[in-house]
Design brief:
This protein is of the alpha+beta class. The protein has helices at about 5-20, 25-35, 40-50, 65-75, 100-150, 150-160; strands at about 165-170, 180-185, 190, 205-210, 220-225, 230-235, 240-250, 260-265. Helix content is about 40%, strand content about 20%.
Amino acid sequence: MDRELTRAELDELLPLFALDALDGEERDQLARYVARDADARAEVESLREAASFLPSADLRAPDSLWAGIEGALDAPSSELEAPPLRLVPSSPTSTPSSAPSETRSRRGWRGRYVVTVLAAAAIVLAAVFGVQVLRQQDRINDLATEMHRDPMEEQAMAARASSDAHVIPLDSMRGGGGGEVVMLPDGTGYLMGHELPALTDGHTYQLWAKVGEGDAARMVSLGVLGSTPAISPFRLTATPTMFEVTAEPGSGSSTPGASVVLRGDVA
């Protein structure tokens, strides 16, 4: 090629460049164009991104795939070849400059043809591989959920699912929903499953366990939970007979106050 392509011609060739279907001077000119023009670069990246969602090579399309593409194009396979160049009969006003115009028309046809074929192929592939794509999206969504899950929630849910777990329901002392305590044989426990409203005026929730029996019974603090508690872990080596959650002032209390929010006996 002995001339520089125009902006319109370069834009027409972007689909072919995105598919790495150009060579020689055309490819070099397109590479320079994409490097210096942000809009062209975005278009190529968009085309390549769309192509990346096509199924991998190990998924075999049925034999009717190309027949479906031909049907989407509304053209038999014999008509998918590039149309021959038609030379306009010379006239007294015709000059050799008409050749570049014909070349531009040829390139324009190629660009539009590639886009049309890609669009038709996308329609057919969407139908053929739709189930696989949906399943893959489900796996991506599951992975995203796992990545954003709180590690403490994972530990608590794993503990609750254990066959050795002891789940103690907690009843609300103020109406509304309750909660639960999950205990493991090694003394590890979690306060979870509650929807405690946020406290105001510098108050905090506090978790307690009643241990011992008779005159030796006492309330042991298992942690100051803050004004908006979530899942709260604790460690208890003694055998509990009851759990309570109270609302306490400031940074907590040495003994539980009268404002009991949740309570549950260990069966």
